[in-house]
Amino acid sequence: MSSKALIVNDSMILACQLQGMLALLGVQASLVSASSDPLPLAAQMDLVVLELQLDHANGFQLLRHLAANLSCPLILVSGTGRASDRRWGLRAGASAVLQRPLGLQLLCQGLQQAGCQVIQAPA
Amino acid sequence: MITRQQTAELLDARLQERLRRLEACILRCSPALHHEAEKELPGLRALASWIHVPGLQEQLQVLEKLVKGLMLVGGNSRERILCHLFRVFLRLLHPARRDLQQLLQQRLAQLDAGRQAGLAEPRVPPACPLGLLQQAGEFLRPHTSPVYGIKALLVCRVAAIEQLHSVLHYRMQELAEACRHNEWTLEACVRSGLARRARQLVQLAAFAPDMLDKLGRLEQMLLRLHLHGGVADQVAALQQVLQNLILGKYLAEPLELVFGLAAMQDRVLVSDDKTRAELIEVSKKLRHVFLIAREGEEFQVSDFLLRAVDRLGWMLDAVGHYSLGLAAHALAHACLQHWQWRQPIGASMFDKVQQFLLALKDVIDDGDCSCEPGFNLASSFLAECPEHGQGLEAATHIALNLANQFEILVVVRKDMFVTRESFLQHSRLLQEELRLLEQGAARVRLRGLEQFTSLLLDIHHLWSVESRESHFPADLLWRGHQQLLAMLDAAALWFEPLPEQELMQQLAEWVRNAELLLGSAAASLSATALHNSLQVALTAFARKAGNLLGRPVRLMLDVGEIGAARQLQMVPVLTEVLRWLLLQGTMDANEGSSQHRTRSLVVQIQSRSLPGAKVQTLIADDSGSKLPDQRMRRRLQRLFQACEIQLKAEWQHGKRILELEFTA
Questions:
Q1: How far apart are CA B331 and CA B304, in angstroms?
Q2: CB of B98 closer than 8 Å to CB of B447
Q3: For B355-380, what is each residue's pLDDT tens digit?
Q4: Fewer C-beta within 10 Å: chain B N or C terminus?
């Protein structure tokens, strides 16, 4: 049975891209905007992929909120290229922090680092 | 009769209310409401003018003109620009309000003093002291530049507000054309300025948020493509993306392009001969420039240096050395600031540049370097910016880096605050972190963070000397630490961390009450018992300090003349003074100034009663001691509720005497 993931992102385009990439790795992903509280949906998932740069919230605070209330792994995705994002993200409770641009291999590594099962590894 | 405090609060509330109304008017984006906003602005300006804040007045005038100008312009971009303007303005105003409050207090104090002295109420309120006005002006000046920048942009392109998208499209066409003829090597990329053009495109798109994200990604793609070298299908796909953007089809990039680029990124390594050669060449030139410059007295930043360092940052980013790349960008930023303010580079900056060049040499020789030197260098370069050029980004970056560097845990759990025992168990760790954060925040002038951490520290401190369980502020402390986390999160996203005012007030209130309670508790105890406990506490501290310093520390204490309440209050203050003295001693020892290091440290504390003054004399034979800094003075002032502290330092019979005089 494939894993279920929740993508929290305010940019629909980026979220759809990530959804496509996760599907290639055998992870079925749903999308949600950070403007609504993602916690109820996230509680039913095996994994949460959260974007750091959000329109409606501070990504780190949302991450901290989710980490305090969920037991599933959380992956933070940052687009700034700053190494401090990684360090602060890990401290705020992320299982892995990925930097954009995301490749399949990078995403796969991130999922494995977060302890998720990947069905189909990229070539 | 309305008190001074009430008047200040009233005015502040009026200012806030007007701001809220203005915000509502502008953000609702309806033409009718914009006219309302137009009406609001003069009122707000008049208020600022009454309180004599020239910087704020200036900003409001600019904003008013812009709003009026935009009323006359049609088109869809108007609302977006207004919103953007208002956000910029709000960011400017928040720190300005603190200055404004200070000025207001000052004004009211002057009026009070005049009334007490029997002078007639002046018709025209007296102006603020010139120094304060200058301070406020200097504080606001760097913040006004974005507003002027926007104004300049609007003036230049007023007819083209609607044509911003056209400008973007034109740039993109230019870029697409350049892509078509590019040789796809890093060298060619730098030569053609393609990367720079892509950067400009992203900056220009600040007014078109819907395109910002895509253009940012486009910029990254370009860089990766340059690094990888010519791959015809990827170039064609990129051109297609550009074409779509030009035609207004804001579509997602094809997935295969994203995957292809990611795969390319994995293959981009330092082994790229051209990149390596370029790195070696630039680092050699830089070393040459700095070696020559070191012989001269003053070194002005040149165009060549700016270009070379900027280029270096790009290349280091490109080859994956992000931390050193960050340092190069920070160096470029610092150089640019020196250049803008026409200031020569100082000796300490030279030392840091040398360190940077050494780290760069390691990268070139070994192809690898750890993250830490890069981060540390970046922080120190940003700290070297001329004071008026230090931006918010620099400040938050350093604060965050400080937290990273010292491995601040900032792990707070609610159970730490439930009972007094569990709190005391964790208090020491939390206090250490708070102290570190307070120092960092003060160093980089994040006043909000500094004030907040200072308040939390006071609570920790007061609670450790206070033993009444009924006043344990569990909920308040928990909320305080949560707020601190939120502020650090904001700093991590490079926003200015600002505390919640309501919580700040509650914390300050608790501190005030606790201090009062402490005073009343002390009054009921006997002076002798307290004298003994004070001696025991200080002797224990001296023993511990002796162990830490590796040399004996002797304390002589004579505080018999002061009352019981004051003695108890003195414990934290004196401990703090001693800690500071010992810290200076340790620092001197660490700096290797062995000629100043003494075999033992003797601190004698005396007190004598003088009419209208409290005096503590500290005698230390540690010749390395310096006078307490401003923060220490403020702390002492607060703890002693003194209006003024005078510090004297002199030599008597081979001993250095520090005298602190507290005037009530």
A1: 14
A2: yes
A3: 888 888 777 776 554 444 566 677 67
A4: N
CA pair distance B220, B242, nearest whole angstrom: 13
Taking an 8 Å cut-off on Cβ atoms, the answer to whether A13 and B401 are in contact is no
Contact assignment for A83 to B217 by CB distance below 8 Å: no
Query: In degrees rounded to 5, what are phi and psi of residue B562?
Result: -95, 160
pTM for the full model?
Answer: 0.39
B220 to A100: CB separation less than 8 angstroms, yes or no: yes
pLDDT in tens, B242-283: 665 555 443 344 433 444 444 444 333 334 455 666 677 777
In this complex, the residue of B262, B486, B492 whose CB is nearest that of residue A104 is: B262
ipTM of the complex: 0.80
Closest CA to B550 of B591, B503, B600, B584: B600
DSSP conformation class of B100: H
B220/A101 touch (CB, cutoff 8 Å), yes or no: yes
Residue B455: predicted pLDDT: 82
Residue B221 contacts A, CB cutoff 8 Å: yes
Q: Pick the residue with more confidence: B591 or A29?
A: A29
- Which residue, A122, A119, A86, A110, is CA-closest to A4? A119
Q: What is the pLDDT at residue B456? A: 83
How many Cα atoms occupy the beta-carbon half-sphere of B452 within 13 Å?
Answer: 28
Q: What stretches of B472-559 show up as alpha helix (H) in DSSP?
A: 474-492, 501-523, 527-549
Nearest to B566 by CA among B642, B503, B455: B642
For B30-40, what is each residue's pLDDT tens digit?
A: 445 445 555 55
